[in-house]
Design brief:
mainly alpha; 268 residues; Leucine-rich Repeat Variant; single chain; elongated
Amino acid sequence: MTNEPPLSDEIDEAIDWRGEPVVCGSCPHLELQALRKCQPLRACVFDRYARRIDRFFDWNPELGSHYVRHPYFEVRACAAKTAEVFLLPALLDDPEEAVRWSAARRLPKRYLLKLRHDAHREVRIRVAQRLDPEELHAMMFDDDYAVRQIVARRVAAPLLTGMICDPELEVRRVVAQRIPPSSLAAMAGDEDAAVRVEVAQRLDPASLVALAGDPDWRVRYEVARRAPPPVVKKMLEDPDPIVQETAREREPGETARRPLSIGAAEEN
């Protein structure tokens, strides 16, 4: 512990979780002041300010186990960071999500399985980030799109076929980026062009003919850039000049230069 000066953004009052002033004289840890292991307005387990509670346990980690049942949830959450590990499983049923996650992050991963369907989205997001990919199947249809997006990035690619029709665009984009090529065609008719662009960038060139008439120029651009010559020839009269140019550059006998990327094309 270091006796650091108060930070400029500290609250200049010491109030406990019940709204009463903190009185050091009646504190059971009064002796810690002389040892410079607690400090008014800086590190105090009875202050309602979470940063001060957290510092108290940083300076006195051995006291964490004594406070895992404290009535104030910030105290329980901070205490869980240093408490004996055998006390933590019981905190997975705490009514406050901050306490549940504080306990879960220190427990073996098998304990996280219990939190895959936690009531709070932030807990489920963190669980999805920590679990092994093979343990994420049960979270593929989570109510929160942010959870599903993480799952789509981490779950085994063959399982992504179950997420092809996810209601959230950003989730389907991730699916299109990772799904096995053999399943990409099932997403070629997605309602959102951003997903179809992802499909066109990965689809087997011979299969791109299905997207040659797509209503979005970005999709047709990818077709012109990658499709076989017979398909590209039909795009020489595309209504979009960038698609036309890309198709023309792939005509036999043309001086080859690398077609524009989608990003560069959009800038033009």
